[in-house]
């Protein structure tokens, strides 16, 4: 349990690396990062350096109100400008001088305005039969024409009666209906979807900045939108889902699932069980980037003891899927599964018993060590998971069948994990209450 205690004390260890963040980007490795960057710059040919855009230090501070108003306007030109601007501001190069600028997530109304763009696209993407009967306009409510799709062609075309005998033009009647603002022709829908994907990428970039993490993790609207996006994965763009997952992984050390039942204002009705259900759906996905991110997210969320009751209620599904990933051919999937199990077995006795009784769990963990996995850290964690399992007397019967394999690894030349497997064999044979394997304690004689 020392690992879980140290995780609660941020000063005792370095910040976990972000998904997609370059090596050395965490606070604890600034010197190593600078050295690596200098070496890379000196070794890289000059023709590999492309053009860069210099952003003024005070640009965001001087234009923050304009950016928020542009996002809220719903106008295509304004929205495009705001998203392009934020895409630049949310990406910091190593020589960027905007270190003292206002954190983007702290700009009043900016995060909510970005989230609203994704929320509005989700409402359009939902099939009509699943929609609410009425919906208030929240983006561009004062504009008859927003610029998306073929609006100008429609409004400038010859009016067509909506039905025989009617004097009201079809264009006017259609445009001022609830769905008219969003112009649900194919081109307009595609443009709205592109805006939502670009917005999700900006929010993902926000999550890489340490100064934004706490604000985003404590914003209920932000978490609701992210979890709702992965919940609706069957109707959303793949890139949007990937961005939502990676954002959640980056924020996961600070996420407390109890926020969904708190007194903070709610924009989307999501409960803790809905959030866990969405993560499990991603874990069961056949898309590697999704199930790897979901496994990593579970492994980080479980470190917070306040999240345990919500995650452990679905422990059976989680363990079964993680063991399946251990047997996958992809090294990334195996690494993500081992990382999640490494944290899960530290929670309580029940977790270790359930994993120990899971079919193929011990076999596949041993296979990762014997093959071995190309990443040594994954092998080390797999060995430590086995050691945690053998500490429970009820699991020793399952592990006793692999005693020969343990002994082979122990006696192998240059065994990197000999000490750990020696302790595992000691646990299997030296405990007085172990009645299952007492007759097998003759290995090595």
From TrEMBL:
<dbReference type="GO" id="GO:0045893">
    <property type="term" value="P:positive regulation of DNA-templated transcription"/>
</dbReference>
<dbReference type="InterPro" id="IPR011989">
    <property type="entry name" value="ARM-like"/>
</dbReference>
<dbReference type="InterPro" id="IPR000225">
    <property type="entry name" value="Armadillo"/>
</dbReference>
<dbReference type="Pfam" id="PF12031">
    <property type="entry name" value="BAF250_C"/>
</dbReference>
<dbReference type="GO" id="GO:0031491">
    <property type="term" value="F:nucleosome binding"/>
</dbReference>
<feature type="region of interest" description="Disordered">
    <location>
        <begin position="1"/>
        <end position="26"/>
    </location>
</feature>
<dbReference type="InterPro" id="IPR033388">
    <property type="entry name" value="BAF250_C"/>
</dbReference>
<keyword id="KW-0539">Nucleus</keyword>
<dbReference type="GO" id="GO:0016514">
    <property type="term" value="C:SWI/SNF complex"/>
</dbReference>
<dbReference type="InterPro" id="IPR021906">
    <property type="entry name" value="BAF250/Osa"/>
</dbReference>
<protein>
    <recommendedName>
        <fullName>SWI/SNF-like complex subunit BAF250 C-terminal domain-containing protein</fullName>
    </recommendedName>
</protein>
<dbReference type="GO" id="GO:0035060">
    <property type="term" value="C:brahma complex"/>
</dbReference>
<dbReference type="GO" id="GO:0006357">
    <property type="term" value="P:regulation of transcription by RNA polymerase II"/>
</dbReference>
<feature type="repeat" description="ARM">
    <location>
        <begin position="360"/>
        <end position="396"/>
    </location>
</feature>
<feature type="domain" description="SWI/SNF-like complex subunit BAF250 C-terminal">
    <location>
        <begin position="195"/>
        <end position="224"/>
    </location>
</feature>
<dbReference type="GO" id="GO:0005654">
    <property type="term" value="C:nucleoplasm"/>
</dbReference>
<dbReference type="GO" id="GO:0006338">
    <property type="term" value="P:chromatin remodeling"/>
</dbReference>
<dbReference type="InterPro" id="IPR016024">
    <property type="entry name" value="ARM-type_fold"/>
</dbReference>
